[in-house]
Design goal:
Blueprint: H1 7-12, H2 33-39, H3 44-49, H4 51-64, E1 69-71, E2 87-90, E3 94-97, H5 104-108, H6 115-118, H7 120-132, E4 138-144, H8 146-155, H9 163-171, H10 173-196, E5 201-206, H11 214-220, H12 222-233, E6 239-243, H13 250-255, E7 260-262, H14 269-275, E8 280-285, H15 294-308, E9 314-318, H16 328-339
Parallel strand pairs: 1-4, 4-5, 5-6, 6-7, 7-8, 8-9
Antiparallel strand pairs: 2-3
The structure holds coproporphyrinogen III.
């Protein structure tokens, strides 16, 4: 089967299909016992640096569920390793960046990086996954968007209020623009390299961009996300642009030019789609609904499909990543409900 025939790819291009494709963010991860078994022996970064282990973990959810895509096992923060920022993951704390970016000099000192040379382990994993993946299943590559990546690089880890990030943005807009411009080029060329290594579709994760007002989004972020998507799209595969808390940003996000826009559960799918009717849409089940019973899950899946209304261009997904404690039986119930919608 050629790339353009895979259901997910056809849906990204808003072609009419006979069913709705489904995959879910963070589908390889701690809610799966087989993932925890691998993690008992290798750290997150060790898995990411070992293409055969990364391949194994990428394929785990595809073996268990009838889903339409695999997403390469990696992390949005991996480019921080060749950038020399000192990335580690600490149990219970999340990511820690030992040498955060705070000044004009820190930005100027960032080395030039090259995806093939510096992130070749991820590209190799993509090639291995594609060789093992069933022909009809799409392979998704991804990267963090300039704003979300910058927030980790500046804060030194996860953040609630993004104080240091916004301080740099408001006080030193030239330094901010220089940093986001560098990140956009790195991300865009990395995504294009992922497509050349076998990704059918690439997703840009701007997970925390909902922290911004529409005016600040347009001024400080939109040009850089646009550039990253333009570089990625140049490789020929469809692009998905995702963020959370983006209800007020969707019109501007559409301006960044992706083929698909991913939305969270805070906005009804049909309302979101009215904002960008010329794009495909991805979403948007609240991941905490997977802690409710099967009845509640089936009801909300049916509601989302009703809002999509059978129009071409809907990819079923969660509104954000699946949570580590999620019961697997409920994930199965969600997948089944998407496959067998009530008539
Ligand atoms: O199936 C998949 O989607 C797996 C690949 C994947 C990971 N991270 C592996 C991972 C993807 C797509 C990501 C994206 C990612 N990483 C995002 C954007 C998506 C989102 O959820 O908003 C962000 C913000 C990160 C940064 C990150 N990575 C954080 C904040 C953390 C710690 C918090 C946590 O969830 O534990 C990570 C660690 C991480 N990356 C894990 C996985 C499976 C869990 C840690 C582990 O297994 O030890």
């Amino acid at each position: 089967m050629s790339l353009s025939d895979r259901l997910l790819v056809r849906t990204c291009r808003r072609e009419a299909t006979d069913r709705t494709p489904i995959w879910f963010m963070r589908q390889a991860g701690r809610y799966l016992p087989e993932y925890r078994a691998v993690r008992a022996k290798a750290s997150l970064l060790e898995i990411c640096h070992d293409p055969s282990l990364a391949t194994e973990v990428t394929l785990q959810p595809v073996r268990r569920f009838a889903i339409d895509a695999a997403i390469i096992f990696a992390d949005i923060l991996l480019p921080f390793e060749p950038l020399g920022l000192g990335l580690s993951f600490q149990a219970g704390e999340g990511p820690v960046i030992a040498k955060p970016i705070r000044t004009e000099e820190d930005v100027a000192d960032l080395p030039d990086i090259n995806a093939e040379a510096d992130l070749g382990h991820i590209l190799e994993a993509l090639r291995l996954v594609r060789a093992e993946l069933s022909d009809d299943i799409a392979l998704i590559g991804f990267a963090g968007a300039p704003f979300t990546l910058a927030s980790y690089a500046i804060e030194g880890g996860s953040s609630r209020n993004f104080v240091k990030t916004k301080q740099l943005m408001y006080r030193y807009p030239e330094v901010w623009n220089e940093l986001l411009g560098r990140l956009a080029a790195i991300i865009g060329t990395y995504l294009a390299a992922q497509v050349r290594a076998g990704a059918d579709v690439v997703q840009l994760f701007d997970s925390w961009v909902g922290a911004l007002s529409p005016a600040d989004y347009r001024r400080f972020v939109l040009p850089h996300s646009t550039r990253a998507l333009e570089l990625a799209g140049g490789a020929g595969a469809p692009t998905i642009h995702f963020g959370t808390g983006t209800t007020t940003l969707l019109e501007d996000m559409a301006g960044a030019g992706s083929d698909v826009i991913g939305v969270d559960w805070r906005i009804p799918l049909d309302e979101a789609w009215r904002i960008f009717p010329d794009r495909a849409i991805q979403g948007n089940l609240d991941p905490t609904l997977l802690f409710a019973g099967e009845r509640a899950i089936r009801t909300q899946v049916a509601e989302i499909l009703r809002q999509a209304g059978g129009r071409p261009g809907h990819i079923f997904n969660l509104g954000h990543g699946i949570l580590p404690e999620t019961p697997i039986a409920n994930v199965q119930a969600m997948v089944d409900a998407v496959h067998e919608p009530p008539r």
